[in-house]
Amino acid sequence: MPDSSHPASAAAMPSPTHREPARRGPVAWFGQVLLYGLFALAIGVFSQWPRYRHLGADEALVKVSFTRVGKPVGECRTLGAEELAKLPPNMRQATVCPRERSPVTVEVDLDGRTVLSRAAQPGGVARDGASALYERLVVPAGEHRFAVRLSDDARARQAPYQREATVRLVPGQVLVIDFDAARGGITMN
User: What CA–CA distances, in Å, run from 15 to 2, 8, 12, 19?
Assistant: First the structure.
């Protein structure tokens, strides 16, 4: 029995953590190729079947999507001399405006019937951020009359932004209704 305390015998013994790599025979290689081939075949089959259709053969999709900062909920007001004197020096501003923003409301009429009426609340703890809305409407393909109204001011009686258009939708088409102030308001693409 070799003496492990002797340096010459310790060098001759292989380390318990070192192993020789296992040699793969032809059967192992064939099995590995077969399994990879079956995996690739499964991916190919399930990428084509079952067929996925996000819309029916005679349907189109209308997406209403926007992000807009509403108008302030109130008017700015000027503080009097007494009110300013009560405030700490670093908070003395002659004009005070509310931070909270109006919710943005949108209504979509399709052929004279209201199909969407939503109010998007402003984000943020102080409700001073942008309002965001995303809705999907599946509609029959064909010619439709759209009327879209958008209001970003809770104090306004009527929606300040309105758009009416007749659009012909082909099966599978996606119509996006958005708001772009640079292009004049409500857009339909």
Answer: 15, 14, 9, 8
Residue, of 143 and 155, whose pLDDT is higher:
143
If one counts every other C-beta atom within 10 angstroms of the C-beta of residue 174, the result is 13
Structure token pair of residue 180: 């772009």
Tens digit of pLDDT for each residue in 74-114?
Answer: 888 898 989 888 989 898 888 988 889 999 999 999 999 99
H/E stretch holding 32 reads helix 26-48
Q: Is the pTM of this model over 0.70?
A: no
Cα 152 → chain centroid = 21
DSSP string for 138-189: EEESEEEEEEEEEE--TT-SS-SEEEEEEEEE-TT-EEEEEEEGGGTEEEE-
Q: Is the backbone peptide bond immediately before 50 cis, with ω within 30 degrees of 0?
A: yes
Q: Are 161 and 151 in contact (CB under 8 A)?
A: yes
What is the dihedral sign for C-alpha 104, 108, 114, 116?
negative
The span from the CA of 161 to the CA of 2, in Å, is: 94
